[in-house]
């Protein structure tokens, strides 16, 4: 049977699109991709979605998230000025040629991040919010855990090459959704087409904006190790999806592949009501981070005396960081486990069981704010390596002298010997801790 030419052409183009998607996944070892329904969390397409990849400048999505959180909490405003250090000014392109001693507003910084993807601005933001880039990276990683980005580790704020800075396509999709859900008042920044600084205009690297119907952000990224990355948000015809492509061979092929994914899967999205998919990590409107003060350290608590029994609590001695000594204390919160808000059924069951089980826990800090506790948990996980591989990080509150503090703990130890042994291993790594029975 002979088919009309138009039908043959349509079939041929359809095959090209299908095999184009398959080809991206099979022929390129760096490739990873995912399309997620932003209304329901249903995965519409995935390939290597949980494989570790380098985020490159997708990192700046989290840098922006941290700025949005600080603005919403009232710690900073759009007009707050960010100083530029010699370290920040020295970052390689892409940048906006900042000089040591310069300053720019938070508003300018966000626009420079989402359009120019400026590395010098990202480092200036890190030093402004975290005191140092390494501390800010720990804060970013802790925030990622709270958002359910269980396989993401940040080592810098810009995404320039670092072998330990890893993420997954699924984690980046979760961050894309979180930015939309948690900060709708700021999300429009990602639609900025251009940005002008010191009379020089910078266009947005995201070429799908204004060219593919419904695309309203989010971010591009590239390093030689990562390949060409792109996270996209699409809202059209009552449907809403996010898509992430990582490891593209060229920016053009990456963009074409993303456009194909959007065309192919948008109509599979739900037209139902929007609902919150990513639990918002509490930041506290009055939270103050010790790391926000350059040169300050977030100390771990001193070891509990060895002579004391570990089966009952002795009076706890919380550590007050210098930067929060005179600040208002956030309201008490219930214990929070760092459990993925959108996990698989098996992951959710295992994490819930571990977080709620009795037995023994290891405590590494008691601090005035949850953000500080989260930062210490992230730093401890990174330093501990395999010692805490099966433990779940949580924060818990307790009150002492009318003041609320936050314990940084790891749960999931079945016996006293397991907890004592893990704590002994941590101490060999210069991590202060003690074990206690729940």
TrEMBL record:
Top-level taxon of origin: Bacteria
Q: Which residues form the SPOR domain?
A: 354-438
Uppermost EC category:
hydrolase
Molecular-function GO terms, alphabetical: carboxypeptidase activity
Q: Which stretches are transmembrane?
A: none
Cell wall biogenesis/degradation as a keyword?
yes
The EC code for this enzyme is 3.4.-.-
- Which terms are listed as keywords in the entry? Carboxypeptidase, Cell shape, Cell wall biogenesis/degradation, Hydrolase, Peptidoglycan synthesis, Protease, Signal
Q: Which InterPro entries match?
A: Beta-lactam/transpept-like, Peptidase_S11, Peptidase_S11_N, SPOR-like_dom, SPOR-like_sf
Report the family membership.
Belongs to the peptidase S11 family.
PANTHER family attached to this UniProt entry? D-ALANYL-D-ALANINE CARBOXYPEPTIDASE, TRAFFICKING PROTEIN PARTICLE COMPLEX SUBUNIT 12
**Protein name as annotated:** D-alanyl-D-alanine carboxypeptidase family protein
Species annotation = Nitratireductor aquimarinus
Q: What is the lineage of its organism?
A: Bacteria, Pseudomonadati, Pseudomonadota, Alphaproteobacteria, Hyphomicrobiales
């Amino acid at each position: 049977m002979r088919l009309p030419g138009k039908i043959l052409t349509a079939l041929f183009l359809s095959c090209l699109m299908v095999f184009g998607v398959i080809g991206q996944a099979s022929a390129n070892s760096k490739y990873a991709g995912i399309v997620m329904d932003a209304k329901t969390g249903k995965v519409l397409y995935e390939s290597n979605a949980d494989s570790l990849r380098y985020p490159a400048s997708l990192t700046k999505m989290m840098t922006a998230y941290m700025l949005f959180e600080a603005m919403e909490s009232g710690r900073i405003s759009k007009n707050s000025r960010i100083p530029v250090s010699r370290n920040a000014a020295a970052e390689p392109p892409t940048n906006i040629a900042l000089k040591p001693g310069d300053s720019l507003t938070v508003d300018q910084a966000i626009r420079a991040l989402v359009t120019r993807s400026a590395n010098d601005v990202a480092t200036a933001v890190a030093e402004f919010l975290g005191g140092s880039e390494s501390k800010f990276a720990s804060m970013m990683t802790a925030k990622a855990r709270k958002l359910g980005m269980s396989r993401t580790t940040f080592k810098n704020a810009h995404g320039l090459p670092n072998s330990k800075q890893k993420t997954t396509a699924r984690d980046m999709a979760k961050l894309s959704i979180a930015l939309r859900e948690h900060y709708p008042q700021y999300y429009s920044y990602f639609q900025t087409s251009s940005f002008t600084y010191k009379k020089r205009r910078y266009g947005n690297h995201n070429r799908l904006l204004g060219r593919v119907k419904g695309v309203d952000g989010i971010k591009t990224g590239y390093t030689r190790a990562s390949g060409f990355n792109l996270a996209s948000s699409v809202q059209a015809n009552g449907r809403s999806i996010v898509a992430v492509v990582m490891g593209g061979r060229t920016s053009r092929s990456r963009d074409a592949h993303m456009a194909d994914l959007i065309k192919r899967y948008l109509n599979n999205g739900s037209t139902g009501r929007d609902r919150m998919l990513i639990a918002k990590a509490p930041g506290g409107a009055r939270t103050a981070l010790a790391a926000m003060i350059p040169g300050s350290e977030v100390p771990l608590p001193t070891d509990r005396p060895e002579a004391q029994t570990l089966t009952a609590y002795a009076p706890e001695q919380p550590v007050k960081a210098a930067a929060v000594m005179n600040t208002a204390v956030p309201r008490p919160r219930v214990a929070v486990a760092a459990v993925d808000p959108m996990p698989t059924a098996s992951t959710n069951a295992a994490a819930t069981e571990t977080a709620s089980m009795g037995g023994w826990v290891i405590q590494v800090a008691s601090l005035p704010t949850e953000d500080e506790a989260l930062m210490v948990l992230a730093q401890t996980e990174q330093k501990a390596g395999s010692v805490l591989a099966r433990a779940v990080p949580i924060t818990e509150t307790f009150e002492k002298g009318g003041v609320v503090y936050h314990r940084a703990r790891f749960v999931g130890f079945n016996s006293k010997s397991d907890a004592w042994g893990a704590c002994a291993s941590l101490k060999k790594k210069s991590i202060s801790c003690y074990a206690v029975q729940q």
